[in-house]
Design brief:
alpha/beta; four-stranded parallel sheet; 43% helix; binds pyridoxal-5'-phosphate
């Protein structure tokens, strides 16, 4: 695996820190909990999409694009990081926001990520829940081409093989850090949505035979559907990095027990997890992804899933700006 073969534009502050969470580990009575701070990638408050955008924007540049189009839910962290990357590189940016939750408060529809989308100068437009967002992006691309623009479509969450390269890169970075710290990582736990993060991470780990299991806590899809989607992208990503066949179906694990009522809808566990991390570690999670991911990790720890002396790394994928869209959950 040699990622310098792919076009890439440096956007992220790397490596992100790998830190112990001592007070949280103590509070829960073990295992040893660590956190990989991909909330600190730097671009417009950071998050996991920045690693993907390094390769996606690299590809867009190589293709001679001058405009990017992407989509997400109203409080999309991906949309915000894409808007910031476009601003930095001088691209026009079109963002389509799907009203997936139906929340109508001013905070949800205008604050948090939405505020930053506008601040970065993106063209923001809304679509109703259930819209065919890929078809909507194609329609916008057609209009822009007719006006002489050269649009590049980035899929929701930046989750295709090009975006997933960012997390194959993260696998290399994380294992190198652990080797340096003489830290044996027994498990990685993360929130999983559009699949690119877990797919890239697993592809990277498998390509270097790291033998570290990754558990994705789903924020939307049921277990089987999520695992199949992650597997499909992980297989293609492994092939792209020159390790075809390295990812097996058994390398893909998702748990959908912490979704609650649906994508972006708060749960008790999420509120507890966000509050615990804020008050025991001084770390901000987010209401849509990492709050539910951490709720899953905390519950699995309480159920005795992990051996007391094991080392579990939570991948913090960012998103804390989304808290400002959900003030009622925390006050
Ligand atoms: C997008 C996102 C995720 C999920 O990553 P995917 O690659 O879409 O599975 C997790 N956490 C945060 C904060 C995100 O914005």
């Amino acid at each position: 695996m040699h990622l310098a073969r792919f076009p890439r534009i440096k956007l992220a502050h790397l490596p992100t820190p790998l830190e112990p969470m001592e007070r949280l580990s103590k509070q829960l009575g073990g295992p040893h909990l660590w956190i990989k701070r991909d909330d600190c990638t730097g671009l417009s408050t950071g998050g996991n999409k920045t690693r993907k955008l390094e390769f996606l924007m690299g590809d867009a540049m190589r293709q001679g694009a001058d405009t990017v189009i992407t989509q997400g839910a109203t409080q999309s962290n991906h949309a915000r990081q894409t808007a910031a990357a476009a601003a930095k590189l001088g691209f026009e940016c079109h963002i389509l926001l799907e009203d997936r939750t139906g929340f109508a408060t001013r905070e949800y529809t205008q604050n948090g990520n939405v505020l930053l989308d506008h601040l970065h100068g993106a063209h923001v437009s809304k679509r109703p829940a259930g819209a065919d967002m890929n078809a909507e992006m194609e329609a916008v691309a057609r209009d822009l081409r007719a006006k002489g623009k050269k649009p590049y479509i980035i899929p929701g969450g930046g989750s295709n093989t090009t975006g997933a390269l960012g997390y194959a890169n993260c696998a290399l970075e994380l294992v190198a850090q652990a080797n340096e710290l003489n830290l044996r990582i027994d498990h990685i736990v993360q929130a999983t949505g559009s699949t690119g993060t877990q797919a890239g991470l697993v592809a990277g780990l498998c390509a270097i035979h790291a033998n570290i299991p990754v558990l994705g806590i789903s924020v939307r899809a049921p277990k089987e559907k999520q695992e199949e989607a992650v597997f499909a992208l992980a297989e293609k990503t492994a092939e792209l990095v020159g390790a075809p066949g390295a990812v097996k179906r058994e390398h893909i694990a998702a748990n959908s027990d912490y979704v609650g009522q649906g994508y972006g809808i708060p749960t008790e566990g999420m509120i507890e997890a966000v509050t615990m991390l804020a008050q025991h570690e001084g770390i901000l999670l987010d209401p849509v992804y990492t709050g539910k991911g951490m709720a899953g990790l905390i519950d699995l720890v309480r159920k005795g899933t992990f051996e007391k002396e094991s080392n579990v790394v939570f991948l913090h994928t960012g998103g804390s700006v989304g808290l400002f869209g959900y003030p009622d959950s925390f006050t």
